[in-house]
Amino acid sequence: MTKRLMVGDVAVGGGAPVSIQSMCNTKTDDVRATVEQIHALEAAGCEIIRIAIPDQAAAEAVDRIKEQISIPLIADIHFNYKYALACAERGIDAIRINPGNIGGEEKVKAVADICRQKSIPIRIGVNGGSLEKDLRAKYGGVTAEALVESAMGHVALLNKFDFDNIIKRMVESNTLYLVIKEFGSEKGYLGPDKISAVDCGYIFEDLVRRFSESFGEEAGAHFTSRDIIYLMTDLLLSEADLDTSSMTVYDMAMGTSQMLSCMEERIHELNSDIEVTCFGQEFNPSTFAIAKADMMIRGGDPNNMRFGDTLSEDQFPGFTFQYIISNPPFGIDWKREQKAVEAEAARGEMGRFAPGLPKISDGQQLFVLNGLAKLANKGKMAIIQNGSPLFSGDAGSGPSNIRQYILENDWLDCIIQLSTDMFMNTGISTYIWVLSKDKPAHRAGKVQLIDASHCFEPRRKSIGTKRNDITDACRELIVTAYGEFANGKVYGDKNGIYCESKVFESVEFGYNKIVVERPQRDEAGNVILKRGKPVPDTSLRDTENVPLVQDIDAYFAREVLPYAPDAWIDHSKTKVGYEIPMTRYFYEYQAPEAVEDIVARITALEQDISAGLAALFHKEG
Asked: Which 3 state secondary structure label does DSSP give 32?
């Protein structure tokens, strides 16, 4: 029989009843949301709760969480042993570590020492990503036997430090044996020849949707369906040089890594000899674990799948990649990362965020800047955004400056507007931005806009809010439109499924915002002067957006002076701005129905109603 130990007031091992455990999926430093979820889980019958500790902020929230709950709390430590020390000081009931991920023996010893002093149990966890190379070689890869031996090795290490409060669940739990047995059976086989990685992504996303809706998951934070991914891959590989031996692909918000696997799949369909190396970063512990496992299954390097917040904990400093494909969160604030982001922005061109910072309530443009910083000189990126980055922010603001940075460097290649209801957890309109640091000559200095909001087929059965699909035929229309780079051309049937392409000079999106002043006047109507110059009347101050392609003075003389002869421009306040009003470019005037037609339609309805009533009353009579 195993030794019994206590996790808070719950006995574990040594013949104690099996305890029900669960793990929060909130951001731990969001104390209110975490406590609410813990209370809900406790009400549902949970006896022990585990929380993720991916950073110092999460560790520092432990005591505030403990003050508001009565259920035992386990800290799941991610990579940094200092987080374990901080949790131990704040009254955590147990600590879960993977010794292979937190550093050398001295760091493990520091955790063991403080836990021994405070009588805090340690739960050991191991996974394929941290499995020692010698065990991989010994067992021919990641096997159950290798994982058990790895866990026992860590047990031995902690025993060396005279620490024996260890939950050796991997070996001593019959439930683990039963789970492995089920997955080893024919019905539990989920090999890639039976269920693809993308299908597993669908399964995972549906589970997420089913079981996390009550916790208010934010739009854009999860899985991107394969129809959108394949469109992105085909846009990236359009006109690609496939006569090469290797390619690198990066996803800065990889989720379960399905974009990376689809990109690799597409490249190998075109040239099976290309060695594709994938890199990804993810902040959600569960999706990160799936991504790392998927990479091992596909024979890639799991160490290229890295955990951490891309904005504040960049795991690939100094790296550049040939292709970037990503769907980062949109409409989510970056308050948690604010200090780190602002510090990096202050580094100027040495950092990722020198061009400007978006509004604190929406960090999606920061991911675009991160991608551009990591895009190779001849690289190409496809990234999903909502409508906000197209136009939010006035001239001189962070969002406008970011657009200016992209357009004046001639990196924006194309924007494709998708239909609504394309994602499982949001029905809003979304856009694929294609950015390139090596545009072909015929695309240089220009931007293509494709309205594909009508290029979809309705699903027979929706998945959450995903009601529309980009079918193979739809994707072919969009990719053809992108490849032909035509201005004002419609692809498909405008009365059914179609997309439309337009091409603009990059400078057409820019404007000078000028400040127009008018003078103060006294009661007699005379202009008030100060040092010989008219004093501006702030109540009459106005602004005008003058397209960059137009001369400011000529515009002012034509559009302002005829209506305000006493006006002048305060040139010291002129600012450059950029916006991409995509809806305006594709707007088509629809003439209202003619009055005569409306009258005729109403008359016909009246006659139909009168005839029905007459027939009804005649029958009753």
From this structure: helix
Tell me which H or E stretch contains 347: none
What are the E-state strand segments in 441-559? 446-451, 457-463, 466-469, 489-492, 498-505, 510-517, 529-530, 533-534, 542-547
Amino acid (1-letter code) at residue 378: K
Q: Cα separation of 569 and 564, whole Å?
A: 12
| pLDDT at residue 256, rounded to an integer | 81
Q: What is the rounded distance in angstroms from the CA atom of residue 277 to the CA atom of residue 295?
A: 10
User: How many residues belong to the chain?
Assistant: 621
DSSP conformation letters of 269-323: HH-TT-EEEEEEEE--HHHHHHHHHHHHHTTS-GGGEEES-TTTS-S-TT--EEE
User: Would the pTM of this model clear 0.90, i.e. be above it?
Assistant: no
Encoded tokens for 215: 């916790």
**Cα distances (angstroms) measured from residue 103 to each of 81, 97, 106, 319, 529:** 8, 11, 8, 23, 73
The band of 183, judged by pLDDT with boundaries at 50, 70 and 90, is low
Closest CA to 343 of 354, 334, 332, 358: 354
How many Cβ atoms are within 10 Å of 310's Cβ, its own excluded?
26
What does the block give as tokens for 579? Answer: 């916006």
Supply 155's token pair.
């047990």
Collapsed DSSP state (helix, strand, coil) of residue 514: strand
Cα-Cα-Cα-Cα dihedral of 307, 313, 319, 320, to 10°? Answer: 90
Tokens of 614: 């007459």
- If we measure between CA atoms, which residue out of 466, 473, 509 comes closest to residue 492? 473
Residue 74: strand pairing partners? 50, 94
Residue 606 exposed, middle or buried by CB count within 10 Å (0-12, 13-18, 19+): exposed
Torsion sign, CA atoms 170, 176, 179, 185: positive
Q: What CA–CA distance (Å, rounded) separates 422 from 418?
A: 8
Of residues 618 and 432, more confidence is placed in 432
**Alpha carbon distance 285, 27 (integer Å):** 11
Structure tokens at 235: 């846009």
